[in-house]
Each structure stands twice: as structure tokens, then as C-alpha cells.
Amino acid sequence: MIMRVCIKLPTGISASQLKEELGDKAPDGATMRRVDYTYGDFRARREASVWRRLNRILLVLLIIAIWLVILSLFVPPYKKLTQSRTEIDDLQQKVNEQQSLLARQTREVNLLKTDVTYLETIARDRLDLMKEGETIFRLETARAKPKPRDSARR
Fold this sequence. Notes:
- Helices cover about 60% and strands about 0% of the residues.
- With about 150 residues, the protein is mostly helical.
- It has one domain.
């Protein structure tokens, strides 16, 4: 931005005399400085800004690379951990199923050893036994039809 300042000089003082009296100070109190940028200086500043940008890009890429290395170090153990947790959950479910089966079978063994009426009920049901003078009516569901045999076999 270029600013032009118009100053009214006191009568009888030339611009060169004013400059000598004030030195680097302007009449309004600001510091005066001569700016002389050549094309080479502009080019050097431009190249410096390009290098600064390239350094920033390189720094960002370096940070991303370090982050990816750290991530690659932690992802495989994390996957193994999650896989182990799912395996533990599956095994825990199997243990629970086996414990419930054991509890049922233990209860049945105790009933067979101690309860005569339960033993009698099981014997009648599984071995088709009955008391004298007792009539048993069984209602069975329709069984699947047997598959027809191949007529080619003889």
C-alpha cells in the first residue's frame, strides 16, 4: 500500500534543511526509511517462502508417516486381542452349556437313586413296562414316510 503525505513546510525552510534537522524522524513523528527492493531481493524472498512451504509440507508428511508407523505397531496386537476376547466368550458359553448339562444329569442321577416314583415313571416310559391290570394308550405323532427304495437295485 502506498501512502502519500503532503506536509506544508514553514516558510523560509527548504526540504533539505528540514531533513537535516529531523534526521530519520518525519514531521508527524513517524520514522522515515528509504525502501529499495530490487528484483533479486524479491526473488530471494519468493524462493524462501517456497522453501518454507516445502518444509511445512515435509513436516506434515513426516508426522503422518510417524503416526502410521505407530498405528501399524498397535493394530495387529489389537486385532489379536479382539480375536482372543471373542474366543474367550465362545469358550465361556460352551462352559456354561456344559455346566447346565452336568447339573441336569446330576439331578436325574440323584432322582433315580432316591425317588422311587421317578424311577417307576422312567421305567414305564422308556422300557414300556406296566402294572398288572393297567392299560396304556400311546399317542404317537405321524412319522416321516420311509424313502422309497431305488427300483434299479436288485
